[in-house]
Amino acid sequence: MAHIRPRHFYEVFADLARAASRAAGILHRIFSAPYPYTELLAEMTEVEHATAEARQELVAEIDVATVTPLDRKDVHQVATRLGGLVSLLHDTARGVQDVHLPHTREATLALSEVLMRATAFIEQSVAELKHPEVVVEQRVAMEQLSEEGIAIYDRASSALFSGAPDAMFVLRWKDVYDALERALAESRAVQNALSSIALDNR
Q1: What does the buried/exposed string (b/e) look like for 154-191 if buried means 16 or more CB atoms within 10 Å of the residue's CB?
Q2: Whole-angstrom Cα distance, residue 103 to residue 31?
Q3: In this structure, are residues 60 and 145 in contact, taking their beta carbons and an 8 Å threshold?
């Protein structure tokens, strides 16, 4: 009978969550660093590749196992969302490089800092997945953090259009803000999924 050891299963989940935290941290460093940031992008790509491999490992094992520690659908959902979150952060970093943005902005630093806090919530929730009350607390904190991030995004987007800005300048930075907002929304979706799993497996 094929059986996934719970410890191994949770280890891979933890690896995916740590990868998301690491990717968010790298992105924040990119926004803090002067261009070019080749080494940081290489580090981000390494994290993205390792995440894809870990997700594939987890999904492959869960698909062939007869006995699983959690519902297969839940495993697929969280693994896919965590992998997607890392890919979003990776693509955001690549996008910044592709358009050769000459300098950072206060809003990108603020939003990327929010993302670091969001991924820390996710990492903590994965570590405490067997303790629903802790995961629910993290979900509430994530909702508050999401509201904070949306407020930053709204202010930053409005500020781009103040005065008589260059159209290309506005489009480039709006794309960056949008990518950060999507990553934050995905973080919230991951947290919600983890909360549902924790509550369903009490």
Answers
A1: eebbeebeeeeeeeeeeebbebbbebbbebbebbbbbb
A2: 8
A3: no
Q: Do 156 and 177 meet the contact criterion of CB atoms below 8 Å apart?
A: yes
Q: How far apart are CA 11 and CA 58, in angstroms?
A: 10
Neighbours of 110 (CB within 10 A): 20
Q: How would you write 3-61 as a 3-class SS string?
A: ECCHHHHHHHHHHHHHHHHHHHHHHHHHHHCCCCCHHHHHHHHHHHHHHHHHHHHHHHH
State which amino acid sits at residue 33: A
Report the SS3 class of residue 174.
helix
Domain at 6-200, CATH class: mainly alpha
CA distance readout (Å), 139 to 14, 62, 96, 114 = 17, 26, 30, 15
Q: Are 136 and 199 in contact (CB under 8 A)?
A: yes
Domain parsing of the chain, residue ranges: 6-200
Tell me the pLDDT tens digit for each residue of 26-64.
999 998 877 778 899 999 999 999 999 988 888 877 776
Enter the pTM of the model.
0.89
pLDDT in tens, 119-175: 999 999 999 988 999 999 999 999 999 999 999 999 999 988 887 778 888 888 889
Separation CA 7–CA 9 (nearest Å): 5
